[in-house]
């Protein structure tokens, strides 16, 4: 059992006595508080806000805080069962009524309604459409307002509503999906239970841009010695400052020691000569990455794993630059890299089982959930992002604004809409990719500006980048920010004017686009690509895709992930809407329903647990 989820809650005799192992994080403390929000309030209503912050958010509390909150009776550094037995014996035969939660006084302060309204507003905002946190507050409120028995009745009703909701099914599915991705396998036969990871004690990060900085922080926080390399002096100084800030804030927040000394900074890749593993995180430029892999292959000690944080370039092409292609894998992090919990581990056709296992285990050590994926352009997450982003650009061409599109996606439950998210990750990343693919044409392209190989293309992202607008990092992108590196996105009148001018230039008539169309076109295009990825065998199953989207892009967990969501909407409905949009936009191949979606819809919307089986069946049997 993992230490941070370990808690010994022993209900002895009266269900009131609990003993907790000391110094351990108590996760399942909510066993008690969520089942009985009564407890949260009956001991004291003075700190309603603090108590309700534990229950709706599922916030983990330490043993010490749980003791302070009255959730547990005792904290022990010794054997929790022994301590529980001792505690039980000490009260055996004595009257316990005074200890029963139901007998605790529950004063109702005059301002409790105001407090609850405020808490409810905050919880609603943070819940992003999840119903459980809001219901928790309702239950706590009932506990304060009603006598104990009635409060319990109300809580039961609320619980029953939650229990039978689609959101409960989505959350249960997601819980198991996250565990399932740990049991990875690759088409070449490597498996989680037969592949042995190598120990990694010292790692290097090459390139200290936005991603390299976050990766350095995550490695250091995981206890590794890190060599952080940046060839540009100015960039190195800025990176050092940023990394230090992130580590300081992290240490403060987690109450953990500051690990600045674990990082050595350098300006040459030579500094990586004696490390066990390298993560390259330079610009998205194949030629540059190739030259770095050639250098690393020559200078690193034998057996060093060479990893790349590319957003979507060919892992095998990079592996071919090295003397040991079996030691090359992708370790693809998500922005902000020290925060987002996802790691895509990309196995090339030549990656050894040991290399994959090592990257998977290192991700876990860094506090990430590692998902093994196959090598293709943009892998899984970003490959699905392409049609999603492209639809968003098309919507702008047709008359929507970045704010409108983002609002719809945020109402759906994303922490950031597609434009804010693009500004965060850097618009130049995808621009470089599109340039390398030959998609970026000169401004003089005229009519062909909006067509590539017979299909509709929007150059909007390219035009924005040509203005030097790379998002948060330059202080301008789809939004404006108060300074380069600023984070508060504000609508930008320049951008609105630019969109109008673009529409005029291309003879596009702006129209009113409703909420449903924005949502369906963005999400169904993304989901359709997910089916294609499954069909191509790039992801082993729908769970992998769902975990990638929840942890890498903030897809709302209570909606299970894009593939689960498609099943919940109904595959036939998703198919029918895609057919509709493809009919309206026949020049957009991403809207043409994937054949796997057709097969699944034709087999009667089977539960997601059966998709793998259907995927593996030869078509003739269907
Ligand atoms: C053919 C053409 C097609 C066109 C396009 C093609 C595209 C295809 C390829 C694309 C390639 C692009 C590569 C992209 C890679 C990515 O990584 S995509 C980005 C994925 N990330 C997300 O989607 C993030 C979504 N957002 C969130 O999850 C949250 O908003 C948040 C960022 C985690 C913040 O949440 P919040 O609860 O507000 O957090 P806080 O508690 O306030 O802060 C936690 C830490 O996060 C830092 N932080 C917060 N906001 C930002 C921000 N805007 N930018 C950077 N960092 C942020 C914050 O500072 C905290 O960190 P510390 O300060 O260090 O403690």
TrEMBL record:
<keyword id="KW-0456">Lyase</keyword>
<keyword id="KW-0413">Isomerase</keyword>
<comment type="pathway">
    <text>Lipid metabolism; fatty acid beta-oxidation.</text>
</comment>
<dbReference type="InterPro" id="IPR036291">
    <property type="entry name" value="NAD(P)-bd_dom_sf"/>
</dbReference>
<dbReference type="GO" id="GO:0016829">
    <property type="term" value="F:lyase activity"/>
</dbReference>
<keyword id="KW-0520">NAD</keyword>
<dbReference type="GO" id="GO:0003857">
    <property type="term" value="F:(3S)-3-hydroxyacyl-CoA dehydrogenase (NAD+) activity"/>
</dbReference>
<dbReference type="GO" id="GO:0070403">
    <property type="term" value="F:NAD+ binding"/>
</dbReference>
<feature type="domain" description="3-hydroxyacyl-CoA dehydrogenase C-terminal">
    <location>
        <begin position="518"/>
        <end position="605"/>
    </location>
</feature>
<feature type="domain" description="3-hydroxyacyl-CoA dehydrogenase C-terminal">
    <location>
        <begin position="379"/>
        <end position="481"/>
    </location>
</feature>
<keyword id="KW-0560">Oxidoreductase</keyword>
<dbReference type="GO" id="GO:0005777">
    <property type="term" value="C:peroxisome"/>
</dbReference>
<dbReference type="Pfam" id="PF00725">
    <property type="entry name" value="3HCDH"/>
</dbReference>
<dbReference type="InterPro" id="IPR029045">
    <property type="entry name" value="ClpP/crotonase-like_dom_sf"/>
</dbReference>
<dbReference type="InterPro" id="IPR008927">
    <property type="entry name" value="6-PGluconate_DH-like_C_sf"/>
</dbReference>
<dbReference type="Pfam" id="PF02737">
    <property type="entry name" value="3HCDH_N"/>
</dbReference>
<keyword id="KW-0511">Multifunctional enzyme</keyword>
<feature type="domain" description="3-hydroxyacyl-CoA dehydrogenase NAD binding">
    <location>
        <begin position="202"/>
        <end position="375"/>
    </location>
</feature>
<dbReference type="InterPro" id="IPR006176">
    <property type="entry name" value="3-OHacyl-CoA_DH_NAD-bd"/>
</dbReference>
<dbReference type="GO" id="GO:0006635">
    <property type="term" value="P:fatty acid beta-oxidation"/>
</dbReference>
<dbReference type="GO" id="GO:0016853">
    <property type="term" value="F:isomerase activity"/>
</dbReference>
<dbReference type="InterPro" id="IPR006108">
    <property type="entry name" value="3HC_DH_C"/>
</dbReference>
<protein>
    <submittedName>
        <fullName>Enoyl-CoA, hydratase/3-hydroxyacyl CoA dehydrogenase</fullName>
    </submittedName>
</protein>
């Amino acid at each position: 059992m993992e230490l941070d989820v370990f808690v010994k809650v022993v209900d002895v005799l009266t269900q009131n006595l609990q003993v907790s192992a000391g110094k351990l994080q108590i996760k399942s403390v909510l066993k008690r508080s969520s089942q009985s929000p009564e407890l949260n309030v009956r001991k004291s209503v003075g700190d309603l806000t603090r108590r309700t912050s534990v229950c709706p958010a599922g916030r983990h509390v330490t043993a010490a805080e749980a003791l302070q909150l009255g959730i547990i009776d005792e904290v022990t550094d010794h054997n929790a069962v022994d301590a529980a037995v001792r505690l039980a014996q000490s009260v055996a035969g004595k009257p316990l009524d005074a200890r029963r939660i139901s007998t605790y006084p529950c004063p109702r302060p005059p301002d409790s309604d105001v407090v609850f309204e405020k808490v409810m507003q905050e919880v609603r905002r943070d819940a992003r459409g999840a119903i459980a946190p809001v219901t928790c507050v309702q239950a706590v409120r009932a506990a304060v307002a009603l006598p104990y028995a009635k409060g319990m009745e109300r809580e039961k009703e609320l619980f029953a509503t939650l229990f039978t909701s689609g959101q409960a099914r989505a959350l249960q599915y997601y819980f198991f999906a996250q565990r399932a991705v740990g049991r990875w396998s690759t088409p070449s036969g490597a498996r989680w239970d037969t592949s042995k990871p190598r120990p990694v004690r010292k790692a290097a990060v090459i390139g200290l841009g936005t991603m390299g900085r976050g990766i350095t922080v995550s490695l250091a926080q995981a206890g590794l010695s890190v060599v952080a390399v940046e060839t540009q002096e100015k960039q190195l100084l800025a990176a050092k400052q940023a990394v230090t800030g992130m580590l300081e804030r992290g240490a403060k927040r987690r109450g953990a020691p500051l690990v600045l000394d674990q990082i050595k900074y350098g300006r040459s890749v030579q500094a990586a000569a004696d490390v066990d593993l390298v993560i390259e995180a330079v610009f998205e430029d194949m030629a540059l990455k190739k030259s770095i892999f050639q250098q690393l292959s020559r200078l690193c000690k034998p057996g060093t794993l060479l990893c790349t944080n590319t957003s979507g370039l060919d892992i095998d092409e990079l592996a071919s630059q090295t003397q040991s292609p079996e030691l090359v894998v992708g370790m693809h992090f998500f922005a902000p890299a020290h925060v987002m919990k996802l790691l895509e581990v990309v196995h090339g056709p030549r990656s050894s089982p040991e290399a994959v296992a090592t990257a998977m285990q290192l991700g876990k050590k860094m506090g990430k959930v590692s998902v093994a994926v196959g090598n293709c352009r943009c892998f899984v997450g970003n490959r699905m992002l392409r049609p999603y982003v492209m639809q968003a650009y098309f919507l702008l061409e047709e008359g929507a604004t970045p704010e409108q599109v983002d609002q719809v996606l945020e109402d759906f439950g994303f922490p950031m809409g597609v434009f804010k998210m693009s500004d965060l990750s850097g618009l130049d990343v995808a621009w470089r990719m599109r340039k390398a693919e030959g998609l970026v044409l000169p401004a003089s392209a005229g009519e062909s500006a909006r067509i590539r190989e017979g299909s509709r293309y929007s150059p909007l992202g390219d035009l924005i980048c040509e203005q030097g607008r790379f998002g948060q990092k330059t202080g301008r992108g789809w939004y404006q920010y108060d300074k380069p590196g600023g984070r508060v996105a504000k609508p930008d009148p320049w951008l609105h004017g630019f969109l109008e001018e673009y529409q005029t230039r291309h003879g596009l008539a702006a129209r009113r686009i409703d909420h449903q169309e924005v949502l369906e076109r963005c999400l169904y295009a993304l989901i359709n690509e997910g089916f294609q990825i499954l069909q191509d065998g790039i992801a082993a199953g729908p769970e992998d895709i769902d975990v990638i989207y929840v942890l890498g892009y903030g897809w709302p967990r209570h909606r299970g992930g894009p593939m689960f969501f498609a099943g919940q909407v109904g595959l036939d409905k998703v198919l029918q809407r895609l057919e509709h949009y493809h009919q309206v936009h026949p020049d957009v191949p991403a809207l043409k329903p994937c054949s796997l979606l057709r097969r699944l819809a034709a087999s009667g919307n089977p539960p997601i647990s059966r998709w793998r089986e259907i995927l593996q069946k030869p078509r003739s049997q269907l």
